[in-house]
Amino acid sequence: MTTPDTGRPLSHWAWGYADRFPDRAAREALAQQLTLFLGLEHLPVREPVALENAHLPSPRVPVPAVLADICTEAPAARAQRCYGRSFPDMLRGFLGDFAAAPDLVCLPRTEAEVVDALRWAQAAGVAVVPYGGGTSVVRGVECDGAGFTGVMCLDMRGLHRVLSVDRASLSACIQAGATGPVLEAQLAEHGLTLRHYPQSFEFSTLGGWIATRAGGHFATLYTHIDDLVQAVRMVTPAGVWQSRRLPGSGAGPDPDRLVLGSEGAFGVITEAWMRVRPRPVFRSSVTLSFPDLMAAADAARRVVQAGLHPSNCRVLDPREARLHAVSFDGDALLLLGFESADHPQVPLLEEALRVGRDAGGTIKDGPRHREGERDRGGAAGSWRQAFIDTPYLFGALVSLDLVADTFETACTWDRFPDLHEAVVKATRGAMKAACGKGLLTTRFTHVYPDGPAPYYTFIAPGRPGERAAQWAAIKAAATEAILAGGGTITHHHAVGRTHRAGYAKERPQPMGAVLRAVKHQLDPAGILNPGVLFDGEG
Amino acid sequence: MTTPDTGRPLSHWAWGYADRFPDRAAREALAQQLTLFLGLEHLPVREPVALENAHLPSPRVPVPAVLADICTEAPAARAQRCYGRSFPDMLRGFLGDFAAAPDLVCLPRTEAEVVDALRWAQAAGVAVVPYGGGTSVVRGVECDGAGFTGVMCLDMRGLHRVLSVDRASLSACIQAGATGPVLEAQLAEHGLTLRHYPQSFEFSTLGGWIATRAGGHFATLYTHIDDLVQAVRMVTPAGVWQSRRLPGSGAGPDPDRLVLGSEGAFGVITEAWMRVRPRPVFRSSVTLSFPDLMAAADAARRVVQAGLHPSNCRVLDPREARLHAVSFDGDALLLLGFESADHPQVPLLEEALRVGRDAGGTIKDGPRHREGERDRGGAAGSWRQAFIDTPYLFGALVSLDLVADTFETACTWDRFPDLHEAVVKATRGAMKAACGKGLLTTRFTHVYPDGPAPYYTFIAPGRPGERAAQWAAIKAAATEAILAGGGTITHHHAVGRTHRAGYAKERPQPMGAVLRAVKHQLDPAGILNPGVLFDGEG
Hints:
The structure is a homodimer.
Chain A: H1 24-38, E1 71-72, H2 75-80, H3 87-94, E2 104-106, H4 111-124, E3 126-131, E4 150-155, E5 162-166, E6 171-175, H5 180-188, E7 192-193, H6 206-212, E8 229-236, E9 239-242, H7 255-259, E10 268-275, E11 277-278, E12 282-290, H8 293-305, E13 312-316, H9 318-323, E14 332-340, H10 346-358, E15 362-371, H11 378-398, E16 402-408, H12 416-435, E17 439-448, E18 451-461, H13 467-484, H14 500-506, H15 511-522
Parallel strand pairs in A: 2-4, 3-4
Antiparallel strand pairs in A: 1-2, 5-6, 6-10, 7-11, 8-9, 8-10, 12-14, 12-15, 13-14, 13-17, 16-18, 17-18
């Protein structure tokens, strides 16, 4: 399988481009480094099961004649879209287990073909999984099709054009299947940018971002894609859900907010009017050191509570800074950055610096002020590169007999110290029980005046054949600590199927029945991504 | 009737405090001034029908024994809560017509009593209108009770306490019945403020703001109450809808966004955790002149698109500036203000001033920079006083045989010039046809990077006995022009019953059935504010 835009082959099991999977030498070096980090003697370097030797069930339904032009049952197409790209997803793919593969893959090129596909699927009793980049880490695109005659993966990447740009309103109408680079390249022709950079940016799509309420580039203010949506168009079995292009409204419950987070259960997003902006020209950044995570967290809190809106406001604990090779000094870091297309950010950075110093910070790097070219230097630059490379690293970890993953939440500031302590205790305890030991690192991905969004990474030694169970034990312990501590089950990874039980505990009690009622109106046959967000039971 | 907080009597038909209704001399002076503005010969000054001579139907249901402690059928209580405070509402009240009065008024003091009231009403087949300040201008609290045995007004103002303050997270848990001054006084004890100042601030309540997605103090960024809500608690016949306190989340569709804008149709909001902030210390403001509205609008667009977030960014057309006695020079104005509790706003004001001058603006007043005390001077100060006084003015207009109202919308910048031209043409045409002539003024209440929220005021000579029809003709023409021009039926006045037909045209086609399905889940007997947002038909 190749990406529609670049033609460059994608891995059928690991993150992203196949040729970006670290080669044997690179993985041996990584194994070396991690034995050190984890205090192990040795980490074996294994190879994935080749696709031709993998287990892939035969399709349960043939390609329908009416969709013959846009459907395929090719094994590579089905295997590649079988799972998302969480650690357990990649583990199954590495081991050659594609039991949950969709029966057919549909690649519509127009909205009319999306409508055709839904009509056929409803009549044939086939479940439909709306599919973008397939980068879900919560089993958002994995459907077993129980109760259906089969499963169709509806890959939206054929709809990838910027259809219209309204320069006066800084808005663009973009098709849902456009990936980050594809839509940015088209916007760049107009000197504009969406400026939404989730870690999956290279592969994930606008439709996927909207369906999962993706977290993006901005650490403050415009944190979620939610705030960048001006209007959405979604095809549902009950008709087209098209909201009006509006900068703001007070007319009833916001129609777009019912689509945001619907994870493909209510309809297939086909296009959206998005709020775009001129490309930034002025950038100011600084990195501050603190003795520990809580001190850096307090500084981040003070910066956002001062009414400053840094585009970057990342907190790294000492382990995170070391893991990503940003700092080896054992200090916690606060990375602050401001950007603007219109005016220098020096005064704002200076205010943030004052607040950060008042909170006990010392300058680690910077301040840097740039006009025009992008700033790729310093601790912030190292951090950005690590950010892009990390998902590939996880593919490599799978090949080293490790158990690893990331999980994230958000909570109010008053709860953060206790929540963090409980999460660390529970996760370390579970790693110890399941794996003997393990490494846990923490950062903040986004920061609000009323609370942070902490993000955790764990790596532990695994035992062949037991890694799925080891992962599940650690994940369960972390999840329980997050919910008990008052956090959300997910700040920007979405619910999918992995977080379904936690989501049921988090949401208002009567909301489960409300979600089912909404789905019943829009998708009466229940064919759309069944099992995501909630199960079919009342 | 008196307000629960001040004990000061409220008018039974006009805006706000009874003693603030302009006396005869003041209204004679106003009549004098308006004959000039409107080019009329004379405006008679009439007196409202006294409550004891008004038409108020007998209650259809007796006060139930189980709610005897908290219910009343006193005529004054029922008349005062019969209508909202739009022009046609006040016109009916002025004429002594209280045909739509609720049968009984319930004044719960606790959430348990709210639950009791709903339980009784559901069993008795009585419709329930959740009620805050009663300041709706869209018939949001007027329910005829068709199909029910009666109507209960559920006045929430007995629940008016700030229950908890979390200083670390800048959050406060506030009961839904607290009015603006009542909640601000309690927050002030902690040096905090919600900083939400709709024009109805003195009387409207937190619950009403949330239910109607009220527009507030900030002209940019935090424009609607939506963005200040951290978590909501809503009592529904299907159970308590309580969202988790979170600074942000990506877990499914946002539960709070389904409550925001629900206008009492899904449940009774009893309390909410709100995002609060320290009281501002640093204020910078400037007023710029432009030759006309479009030039001032363009400057406002450039300011917000530059990524500046002024707390005040009001545009006044020359007529609006004259009507509110801010300027008599025939120029359009742009009022800009920045505020912060943490740092001086001089650099931000200077950037905005640069942008405004580049757009052709000249300084009319300021710049002013203040630290500490509130700035009440200059054009912005005159404007603020007029803002607070205007609703009282409309009560006076009712007594002068005039037809008047305000209406508002929001649209993208690309559509604004055509929409504005069409609205002006349609409204002036309708005033000419219905009234012979009339005055129309325009301002922006809120401004977004992707579009403005224009706000219109009209005043025209009315004919006794025909004013309701004259108003309806003008309102219909304006509404049609707004919807045809791509605007929203309401930016912050809500849907209520007045905008129900327009809202049906604006929202996504399948959304009507979805709203009914949500209501059916939460309020299976359909007792909650029936007729608001949508009618009962499929």
